[in-house]
Amino acid sequence: MNKPNIWIATAIVMVIGTTTFFGLQSAVAQYTGSSNLEEELKLAQEKVSNAGQEGAYGSGTSMVSADTSQTAIFIVILVAIFGGVAAAFFAMSRSRHREPAKY
């Protein structure tokens, strides 16, 4: 590809990207509406009570509890995953036999 074609392709991608970005409706639904302060406080209290219920994951509650056994299991799983990936990379680097570069 020559330079003018690259510039034209770049300009097309930029135009399509910006028109798509500005053309889509932004997520502003949480800031619109005609609710008053009492409704907002009621909704906030419901949110706090729902977050405090058992099994309310995804509402800002911690997945790792204060219980040390659950935290230890979580850490062991993470170490096993990352350690396995590191061991695989180490084994791959040691098993390859590279030929010396020819000048």
Detail the topology: elements first, then pairings.
Blueprint: H1 3-23, H2 37-51, H3 68-95
Outline: flat
Radius of gyration: 27 Å
Number of separate strands: 0
**Uncertain regions spanning at least 5 consecutive residues:** none
Q: How many structural units, i.e. domains?
A: 2
The major pleated sheet works out as: none
Strand content: under 5%
SSE string:
HHH
Query: Which percent range fits the helix content?
Result: 55-70%
Describe this structure in words.
This protein is mainly α. The chain has 2 domains: 1-63, no CATH class; 64-103. The chain is 62% helix and 0% strand. It contains 3 helices and no strands. It has helices at 3-23, 37-51, 68-95. The two termini are 32 Å apart. The mean pLDDT is 78.
Compact overview of the structure:
By secondary structure, this protein is mainly alpha-helical. Helix content is 62%, strand content 0%. The chain has 3 helices and no strands.
Features of the shown structure:
2 domains; 103 residues; mainly alpha
